[in-house]
Design brief:
It contains 11 helices and 12 strands. The strands form 2 sheets. The protein has a 6-stranded mixed sheet. Strand 1, helix 1 and strand 2 form a beta-alpha-beta unit. Helix 1 packs across helix 10, helix 5 packs across helix 6 and helix 5 crosses helix 10. The radius of gyration is 19 Å and the shape is globular. The chain starts with a strand and ends with a helix. The mean pLDDT is about 95. 2'-monophosphoadenosine-5'-diphosphate (ATR) binds next to helix 6.
């Protein structure tokens, strides 16, 4: 067994697509190493960290339900963790076990790749939803200087996030959406609506600025109903698959010492897997 080992740990982890993408990079760059699924039940978390050094983990990804619970086991967390309230990647820095959150890097890397220069003239974004994906979008967008209007079914959750992020983020209910769209350069869906098994995101895009970009973080299906509608209206669109791919770049770089590329071949590999496992996707 190789000694260069990284992991995705969660409960369950069987569905994770991360092994496929890190496995692709390991093979592409001829790196002798592994990226392994580790199912850790909540009562197994202490044991996982007690044996962490002994196993020799280089680091890994943390997924549901451990994204907050891992924090007490770490020596340090990055600033993004506080902003996003969750950890998704672990790595060593000297002898310190560090936790970071790379979801906002994935959010930005994806739109930077698909719509280069998008933020040159973008001033305002409307973000739908107030969960973890919304936090990544808000953190990323504020970092690029955009004003964010956060729109959520439960306005109290939007208000809590707006307070958390402070300046430049306002909270709204869904009834405010048409007015917000008319002023937005970017519309981002971070709700689960449109995902396989969920109702579609059913909003009228007519009020949206003509040159606005529409970004859906949902990637199963690859082209959601709202992205299809946006394309038909002539908007530039960004799907969610690239967010998964780009968030993984940082982790791989930390563990294996090489910055991997998000290639067309990698996109195809993941897209084919999604289509194969999700009829109609
Ligand atoms: P995540 O952490 O993955 O982003 P989450 O915390 O479950 O997910 O958040 C899901 C988001 O989808 C929430 O903003 C939720 O709105 P509420 O805060 O009002 O629950 C939104 N959402 C889910 N189903 C919805 C629906 N039928 N209509 C409108 N919004 C919905």
């Amino acid at each position: 067994m190789t000694s260069r080992r990284a992991f995705v740990m969660g409960h369950p982890v069987a569905h994770s697509r991360s092994p496929m993408l890190h496995g692709y990079w390991l093979e592409r760059y001829g790196i002798e190493g592994s990226y392994e699924r580790v199912d850790v039940a909540p009562d197994g978390l202490k044991d996982f960290f007690d044996t962490y050094r002994e196993v020799g983990w280089l680091g890994g990804n943390v997924t549901v339900p451990h994204k907050i619970a891992v924090i007490p086991f770490l020596d340090r967390t990055e600033e993004a963790v506080e902003a996003m309230g969750a950890v998704n990647t672990l790595w060593w820095e000297d002898d310190m076990l560090v936790g970071g959150n790379t979801d906002y890097i994935g959010f930005l890397g994806n739109i930077d790749e698909l719509v280069p220069g998008w933020d040159r003239d973008a001033r305002r974004a409307t973000v739908l939803g107030a969960g973890g994906a919304a936090r990544a979008a808000i953190y990323g967008l504020r970092g690029r200087g955009l004003e964010v209007s956060l729109c959520n079914r439960t306005i109290a959750r939007a208000e809590a996030l707006a307070t958390h992020f402070g300046d430049g983020v306002s909270a709204h209910g869904l009834d405010a959406l048409p007015g917000l769209l008319s002023q937005s350069d970017l519309l981002v869906n971070t709700t689960s609506l449109g995902m396989v098994g969920q109702p579609p995101l059913d909003i009228d895009l007519a009020p949206l600025k003509a040159d606005a970009i529409v970004y859906d973080v949902v990637y199963v299906p690859l082209e959601t109903v709202i992205l299809k509608a946006a394309k038909a209206r002539g908007h530039r669109t960004v799907d969610g698959l690239g967010m998964l791919l780009h968030q993984a770049v940082e982790g791989f770089s930390h563990w294996f010492g090489r910055r991997p590329e998000v290639t067309a071949e990698l996109r195809t590999l993941l897209s084919d897997d999604i289509r194969a496992k999700t009829p109609g996707a």
